[in-house]
From TrEMBL:
Residues 16-33, 53-63 have a biased composition (Basic and acidic residues). Residues 1-33, 47-73 are annotated as: Disordered. This is Uncharacterized protein. It comes from the Eukaryota.
Amino acid sequence: MPSKRSKPVDSSDPNSTERHSTNKRLRLDTHALSEKSTNNLLLRSSVTSAASQEKRSALEGDRIPITLDDFPSGPDSPFETTFDKLRLSVIATLERLPIAQDHPDLRKVGRLKTSEDVSKLLSTRGWWTPSLVNVFADSPVATMSLSSSVGSLNPPCALTERLFRQGKFAHLSSLCITGTPLSHLELAHLRLLPALASLNLASTNLSPLHLLHLVTHAASLRDLNISSNPSITDDARVPLSALTALTSLYLRDTSITIPCLRLLVYALPLACRFITLPQGCLHYLNTRSKRYCVDIPIGYVQDPRDVPNMTLSNLKRNLELHKAANGDIATGGTKTEVAERLMGVLCGRVADGRIARRVGRG
């Protein structure tokens, strides 16, 4: 069968040359579109299974998808995991975020392998927004830091209110919100986090009343940082005593005093350590030897429970031992007065020893 040949251009026809040129441009445009479509298809499938990833890497030059258009969508999408959908949502949101859309770290999102990795990047860069917090509501993410993301565009309430959802953020165990004042409402937004075990609220202008909102986490909260909140006074003993699972407590630059700590060491679990303390408390512990006899020798009473059975002469003898360390301790008075005085000294000594051991100083 004779092959079809292109009709020769008739130079005498003024429209023939124009038609030929138009047809040529159409063929070139069609070829360019076809090539672009092929390249896009390769790029969009760059985050599917590991096996096909290796094959495509050689063809694509190891290109990394960074925009939502780089990925397929719809019913025929090859993505099958929840993480793939989460990553796409994060990329789409960051592309509209002015501080992130031109940042080189935006490309890293396409390389990350877990929701935890994505959360860490968002926390480090301060890219959390209310919509991004929503994206992670059903994810297995365990750690989130909102500290660097709080600002004029993201007031704390806009972020914390997204955490206040029943049955969501079931795996979120570590939360950090520091360096910004928090209201009672914003602390209340944290009440529905079922797995919250570590909470950092340093420098958030907290008071003892704010801490009442944390009692809902009494069974899960193990690590609590409320440092640099000078409005936290000895009244914080009540909500703190309710946190029966605590193992680490940070109290630096609060207004808590030794009398409060003496009560807390009996209320908190034996495993709870005071990782940091106010400077005044540390000074007191370091100068205990000037307040009473720390190392009581054999033959003198150490247990306050033995005091009621002691004679007046023996009571005074024991007080004299402590007066040698602290001249302000009086040794005179009735048996009841002397007994109460010795009881106070011994009870303080025992409690201070417990505090010192919990900060590794005893």
